[in-house]
Please model this.
Amino acid sequence: MISIHSNISLSDRHTFRLPATTCAWADIPNEAALQDFRKQEVVQSFIQQNLIMPLGSGSNVLFLNDYPGLILHSSDQNIRWIAEDANSLSVVVGAGMNWDVLVDLTLQKGGFGLENLSSIPGTVGAAPIQNIGAYGVEIKESIKFVRWMDLLTGEVVNFSAAECEFGYRDSFFKRRKTPFYIVEVGFKLSKHFQPKLSYPDLASRVNTLESVALVVTAYWVRTQVLDIRRLKLPDPTALPNAGSFFKNPIVDKECFQNWQKKIPSIKAFELSDGSYKVAAGWMLEFLGWKGRRSLTVGMHDQQALVLINHNDAKATDVEKWIHAIQSDVKRVFNCYLEIEPLLIK
Model:
């Protein structure tokens, strides 16, 4: 039987480590246990008030205040390898599985497609919500289905990748307003390695190789990604952070060309629809935010997109810092810089 724990500190359960507590906490081992658990009167009370939320490793969320509801944390790390044929490998993974552990396991099994997403912090269940992406790859490219429960009704549904309505750091789940819980995620991976190396950080490393064909393997890509992330991104156990804090703004061609005329050094990537994804990290570095800090918060000195909790920051410190950055970007670029992690107020 699932136990409910009261007044649990969240400072060590989200990677930004703000001081906060949750009214209630429960570890969910599997779908069947959750079905029984949600029928309890106290759980139904949280559900009806929409005061219930799933939480993985807390790497993409900031608790700016205490949470007055029930947090559900998956402990399901079950993994099933299925439907293997000459060209593909399918795997179904419990929501509580560590994401990078899964990436390593898929490579060991000869399944390719997730290697560029190595070392992204978090759990499998949280990954589809954000449509995690890095180094030219998004998780939507490998997802076969997402199995999730409507906590209001108890109905469990398998959503295809199309039904998940994935967008840039976005999905159906991220926009959903009523309580839900992701049970497991199914992936379909290729058994034929096709490297994706167009992202500048990877491309520059490929260009240094004497013989790309002899060296570039999926494990090589994983090793490079691990190294790049180690060099550019701070370890949240040493410097509390929530990874990239702002989304790259996407603008139309006319807007981008206007910016480019004023600032020729602007960094952006042209998308398939003709729009441009502008590097938010470049924008902040251009405006002088890289390495800037106050007593308690600041931007990382190696990656301007990463907001750091330097010294027991409070929610007010974070909110003032966010407002100052967004105002500065608005002043120069007339552009609103969206926050990437979820802020719980």
About this structure: The two ends are 31 Å apart (CA to CA). The mean pLDDT is 95. Residues 254 and 315 are 38 Å apart (CA to CA). The longest helix spans residues 315-333.
